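All the exercises in this workshop are built on plain-text protein records. A record pairs a protein's sequence with a compact description of its fold. Backbone structure tokens are a discrete shorthand for how the chain folds in space. Once this layout is familiar, the rest of the handout is easier to follow. As an example, a complete record with its sequence and its structure tokens follows.
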Amino acid sequence: MSGNSRGDRFRVTTFGESHGGGVGVVIDGCPAGVPFPLAEIAAQLARRRPGQSHLSTQRKEDDLPELLSGVCPETGATLGTPITLVVRNKDARSAHYKDMANLYRPSHADYTYEARFGLRAPSGGGRASARETVGRVAAGALAQTLLRRAHGVEIVAWVDQVGDVYAADVDEAAITSEAVDAHAVRCPDIAAATEMEATIVAARAAGDSVGGSIRCVARGVPPGWGAPVFDKITADLAGALMSLPATRGVEFGEGFAATTMRGSAHNDAFTTSDGAIVTATNRSGGVQGGITTGAPLRMRVGFKPVATIFKPQQTVTNTGEEVTFQPAKGRHDPCVLPRAVPMVEAMVALVLADHMLRALGARDSDLGSSS
């Protein structure tokens, strides 16, 4: 089956289903000699895992990464060979899906997977479940380590909107993960986060769900990453971010607001600072011509409401019989946004690490123990 791998120089392949034995990732192309950041990977997985707060699904998974290959047991450094990480599934409750095996849940991947492959894994959504993103987040944590070591790149994402509640302006030059994680919603504007929390709680109480958006900034990215014409950095980032479950749109810089601006208002003028060429503004979001300018990358990702709700809905069975469908059991996020923050950071890191290695033609020693 194609479509499970991403990247050229830094290539990741995820595997596993929501209710299978486990989920994980194979990472190929990581340079040798890099101290393997198992603690950082575990920390990022903890930010993504279910059951972490009253705002998420109450499925209980430890999500502790198990390293199978690619790291020297004696030194703890990468070997330059494929790295395999797995997280075992421990709290799958497939019986909750018994009554859904023969019908197509509205806005899920049930029908489309069956149309594509002739069958599907009904329990937990199988491969279409957001549980698949465990492997992405694990690989993304390693990619962030490479980016920090080589260039001091920092990637921070935060919840910008839930429903009709928006965060106030956030200082993208100073925002930290600690500020983001200070509230369960993962919005650094605490007043807005409190309103967002109430919106999520109200949606859950009504058996419904709610969407929103996440902003992300990548600071310290040097100029010159990306490639014409089809491998623009924005094209790769958009593709990576849109591959996340429930995504509906990606903006860079001023995004769709730029459609209402004049060129004279949107253009980023060049100037110098401490002898370096920089842009006076950053309305283009750190990318021009599909290649990074050296200014921070700025992006926003929109997420739809979670498809699983607990209200009656009209659908059909796999024999075409019309039925009314209402789940009696199940554990689902009423809003994907808080747990999607580390997913967004991971996908940005994976694309940037891949383009870093492409742009620099890095040898193993460039990012390994000699750094």
The domain at 5-367 is CATH 3.60.150.10 (Chorismate synthase, AroC fold). The longest helix spans residues 337-360.
